[in-house]
Write a structure and sequence with these properties.
binds iron/sulfur cluster, mainly beta, 63 residues, two-stranded antiparallel sheet
């Protein structure tokens, strides 16, 4: 499997994303875009990583 560089400035546990570094809880991108799906966000659940891309074939990071 392709080895990706862990960006220690962007912690992330979404291993289903193809931008996840896989071998630790970090994103592999240099930068990400964060946005919201709410008109008036009030809690962290209102925010989203807009750089998420679904990993084809599901998660193969662990297990
Ligand atoms: S793009 Fe977003 S969701 Fe995907 S690994 Fe990076 S921070 Fe996580």
């Amino acid at each position: 499997m392709e080895k990706k560089h862990a960006n220690h400035n962007i912690a992330c546990t979404v291993t289903q994303c193809k931008n996840h570094c896989c071998d630790a809880d970090y994103c592999a991108l240099d930068r990400i875009q964060v946005g919201t799906h709410e008109a008036d966000p009030t809690v962290c659940e209102c925010t989203d990583c807009r750089s998420f891309e679904r990993k084809e074939g599901g998660c193969d990071c662990r297990g």
